[in-house]
Amino acid sequence: xxxxxxxxxxxxxxxxxxxxxxxxxxxxxxxxxxxxxxxxxxxxxxxxxxxxxxxxxxxxxxxxxxxxxxxxxxxxxxxxxxxxxxxxxxxxxxxxxxxxxxxxxxxxxxxxxxxxxxxxxxxxxxxxxxxxxxxxxxxxxxxxxxxxxxxxxxxxxxxxxxxxxxxxxxxxxxxxxxxxxxxxxxxxxxxxxxxxxxxxxxxxxxxxxxxxxxxxxxxxxxxxxxxxxxxxxxxxxxxxxxxxxxxxxxxxxxxxxxxxxxxxxxxxxxxxxxxxxxxxxxxxxxxxxxxxxxxxxxxxxxxxxxxxxxxxxxxxxxxxxxxxxxxxxxxxxxxxxxxxxxxxx
Length: 345
Ligand code: ZN
Ligand code: ZN
What we know:
globular; mainly alpha; 345 residues; binds zinc ion
């Protein structure tokens, strides 16, 4: 299998418009009005429209409230932040690594903006923890990704697939890494997100949940962008579009859903207001959505609709009228209505 080579910065002998997403030729000069996949322009615009920083989220109430949470809630809170941080750190890196090997400068540019947001997500977890707990507990939450058995087991395949691409970059390994990126953006974060929204609907830790909702919106757009790039790259390399590869993807989704369900039962047991059965349905519903985005079929026909109805108010229906849902000083960044449409994500 042919190894992808790291792309030069500038190569004036090549045309400005890339000849392929991977393994093609391009000068390195990016003109958004002359790109190979014109709809990538919109992908970038939608991501850029979501700009925010952690420090603008007011944590004063959360600081006071954290110690009044139940023991189970406090423990889940720290574990879930630990999980999210474990996933979002590498998301910064994988976006940059894929960017190193794409020959399409528009894809590089999209990945640069995704990497930037992932780095803010990662920062936001440290910001939240430093607001609500002491340094020892903060350190412990960030150690989870390398010490907690359940979490490590859950992340095993992500580690394998991401590292395989890093060590052996080929069309196949980058396609597989993008499948996992889609899984992270569209599935792995969501039981964690649901935990914070559940606290918010009981008027607890609203600052943290507001921040989580910003991260959630970013992830939805990232998932859309990455799955679109994946489909375009696969179309350019039809020899990889085989039954075997399709089966591999379905298998990863089934496995990921299993792992996510195990994880949610481990971390969310004893949390008031969260039904574990319902959570399992929500996870399967998210898997169906992401499979559709990758151009594949749903594998959980009984979960084509979101079974966790209450969560729609927080994520599924984000639009202009709901941006102030948590009644925080809110974001003014998303202004034009055509940038919405989160229902489709
Ligand atoms: Zn993220
Ligand atoms: Zn993301």
